[in-house]
Amino acid sequence: MPISYSCPHCGKQFSVADQFAGQSGPCAACGQVITIPGGMPMGHGYAPRPSSGGMGGGTVALIVVLAVVVLMCPCGIALLLPAVQAAREAARRSSSANNLKQIGIALHNYHDTYKQFPPAVVTDANGTPLYSGRVLLLPFLEQAPLFNQWDQSAAWDSPQNLALSQTVLKVFVDPSAPSGTCHYEFVTGPGAMFEAGSPHSFSGVTDGLSNTIAVVEMRTTSPSWAAPTSVDISQLSAGLPQTNHPGGGQVLMADGSVRFISQSVNPQVLRSLSTRNGGEAVGDY
Predict the structure, then answer these.
(1) pTM
(2) Residue 206 contacts by C-beta under 8 Å, 6 or more apart in sequence?
(3) Exposed, middle or buried: residue 100 (CB in 10 Å: 0-12, 13-18, 19+)?
(4) Residues in CB range of 239: below 8 A, 6 or more apart
(5) pLDDT digits (tens, 9 = 90+) for 139-178
């Protein structure tokens, strides 16, 4: 049964398992040496159990005492929360970077197959947008069965495709986003990696694949990964779009690498990174 006791120096109350009876160590509140009631005293310091590995009994006891203090003191919990939240955000950001890398690999595999990058938006003969070029990447994202059911002559929200376009694909979802089904947009517009009506190959990216942004991670309200949405290069001239991460956002470069760009980046630098053949000199960012 748990042993309840008070520190004779500061009066703080604690509770530990009875296996630590008789062990001594510093009080988690005031630091003075105390002995847990019961059993035979074992001197200063929590003596480890005789074993070939693992944490010693004293270490476990101290952890238990500290845990009790944290649970009894809201201030202790408040101190731990920022670290926990930061760790969780780092994991979500890493997961989002992995999504971008998968999209980058899919783009390169598409290029290897068709000798050019896909259009950002697929249109009909009259130029009416039908669906996103993300649909064309499905076979290269382990989603061939979904792609094989897609009616390529119909819009994303047509009766033929609507149910398919509502399928949640984790590769298009940023884990840090509060909502939405797609948070990665192709960069489009004159001079961009994805220019309407003019699909490009590696040779058309004269600024260098590693110096050209292909996809931007952003907080978007796109109704589906299949919807014909994108981010225009003119938007990037005003600065980095709103993202789901503190301090900035991640971008996929045309060479398949992923980089984090600060929210305070110089808009001119961002614009230079968004062109495929502008010939601009890009400094540090």
Answers:
(1) 0.71
(2) 276, 277, 279
(3) buried
(4) 263, 265, 267, 270
(5) 999 999 999 999 999 999 999 999 999 999 999 999 998 8
